[in-house]
Amino acid sequence: MRGFGDLEAVIMRRVWDRDGPVTVRELYEELQRERAIAYTTVMSTMDNLHRKGWLARERDGKAYRYTAVASREEYSARLMGEAMAEAGDTEAVLSHFVAAMDGGQAEALRAVLDRLAGKRPS
Amino acid sequence: MTAALALLGYAIMAGCFAPALLAPLTRRGASVRPGLAAWLSAMASVPVSAALGAALTVKAAEADWPALTRLVCQQVAGTACSPQVYRSGLYSAGVAVLAAASTLVVAAALWRYGRRTQRAVASTRLHARAALLAGRELDGAGAVVLDDPRPVAYCVAGRPAAIVVSSGALAVLDKPQLAAVLAHERAHLAGRHHLLATLTRGLAAVFPGVPLFAKGSVEVGRLAELAADDAAARSVGRRALVAALVAIATGTAVPAAAPVTRAVPPGALAASGHAVPARVERLLDPPGPAAAALFGLALALASAAFILVPGLLAAAA
Lengths: 122, 317
What we know:
The complex is a heterodimer of chains A (122) and B (317). Chain A is of the alpha+beta class and 122 residues long. Chain A has five helices and three strands, in the order αααββαβα. The longest helix of chain A has 14 residues, at 103-116. Helix content of chain B is 74%, strand content 5%. Chain B has two domains: 1-87 and 288-317, no CATH class; 136-286, no CATH class. The interface between A and B is large, with 52 and 74 residues.
């Protein structure tokens, strides 16, 4: 799967895992222990995340201190809210595996399964 | 002029009556890909032939403006339509305003379609991005987990795309069932089904009065589900896929050894519009190869007709 190696995700997860704000220098030193990476790459990626609305920052002397705009849990909840809404409520196109059923629909499914019980392939 | 009007007539006929032809051919999902192709070519042929017909009508009208205004005048006013009326500047201006207004209506519809499609693509990509950033990586599965007790699994296109499984879904799936879910979602992404959904739902939203668009966008979505089911069944087996469908739809784990029936909780008897019973029935009792070939042939002929008829009319113009 593409995407997980990407630096934006790595940085967001590190920011979320911290308690307080973090500077580019601090994250760069953390990341450098695990991979060959340039300071400017970390800086521009964090700048991108700020521009896209994922990270907030405030100036502290010569450097910026970054924090996540919303917690990971808040993003999760927002995404799930969008995923659970009816198709008309969200503009994003999501392909659901299957929608949840209520009692009556479950009954219809049970009837189908009962009818097919003898024919089921293994 | 005749060909132009015939194209417009075709657009109206296909827009109203194509669903009656196609729905019975795709209802059982015996032939999924030809079914998709037939619905899509029918849906595409309507705006294309309407636009062609309108353009040719305008062209003919331009070439023969005085005769046309006279014709329109006589159609509306009958014998009361005298040369003083249809040669007057006021009358010509009125016809010109009418033509401009209808052009404007078409342009506005196009613009709404474009903007709606663009917004859908943007929010879809944003959702995928956010899911990949906020989700927990599912080991070796190429998917992310979001914490939510409700069982949900879906994919969302983007750069890159994301497959999302809720922690509630993980809790009711065993390993083969999870593999079935992931195979189903990967088939959606590989088949670019989100693109079909975006384009067809946009048509249905912008032209709500056209039966073909309303029915077609729903049918394209349903057939895309069946195509993904077929792909998943091929790679992980029908049994795991059926168990996964039942587990997520009912929120109850389905043990591999037990009959699937036992996992379905009892409830009040009611007519069901839900897709699961039909999908399960099709997986456990699939249409035979003869049915697939027969429906496939009929659908291929239908597709050809939706392309050839307006094509020949345009060529005759």
